[in-house]
Design a protein that fits this description.
The chain contains 13 helices and eight strands. It is of the alpha/beta class. It has an eight-stranded mixed beta sheet with strand order 3-2-1-4-5-6-7-8.
Amino acid sequence: MEHITIIGAGLIGCAWATVFARAGHTVMLYDVDQAVVDTAQDRVLATLARQYELGLIREAPERVIERVRASSSLEEVMHGADFVQENVRETVAAKREIYAILDKLAGPDTLIASSTSGIPASSFTEDLAGRHRCFVGHPINPPSVIPLVELVPAAWTDPAVIERARAIYARAGQVPIIVNREIQGFIVNRLQGALLAEAFRLVEDGFVSSGDIDKAVKDGLGLRWSFMGPMETIDLNAPGGLRDYCGRYGPLYLDIARQATPRQWTDALIGTLEADRLVELPSHLRDARQAWRDQRLMQLMAHKRSASTEYAND
């Protein structure tokens, strides 16, 4: 098993530690903040315990956490690292600073991935001697529950690096997708952005309330999308499959797309949406609702695993 190093022991870093440790890897967690280092193992253990209760992992959490160590020494955590997952601040300057150090400390075959949500690897790895082994490994929050990870190479990333990374993520239980070349926002953010743009437009123009937008997704589209992607959805929604669907509804979607001119999200609109959300969920209840969300996601993943096994056995 590869030796995994996690740079940044916050929410995403601890989630990644959970992913790799439960897959059998030795994990070193690093953070510049000693207080974060001191509590990192406890936070990972708490996540492992919840997942064990739901049957998402079979090994006892107390055994899994033995494979996780935390440190405030970069030299210590980088020693012998085969794979590095970086999770520092979302600025180009912060990425450049940490990557300059990581590139010098890493062994010649060490892979270095960034969890960035939208900064391309080319913007902070160009001047590195080992830039060929650097890429984006963008998770969906939290990666300890949602398995998708986007692998986005820079123009100089070695294709063999991406293939090796894909195999490591897959063995750890993640679902890697490969973005063939850099694009702003990667894939998931662009898909989510398209839906948000239309949702904001529909609310702003008075066609529907923000609460009913949420219902349209969670009680409509989202039910199908939780186990089928949009391509499979439309393939199954017409008697003749995908081509039949496109023939039936292509003109409608083209007309809709022509109406959808880009709009800035105005402060007035944001204020309306925020007020609606505060009615639905007062700010002091947000932390509890986030915990509820994670619990429901874990329950959904447990169900999907069970259903997938049942389907395979039919």
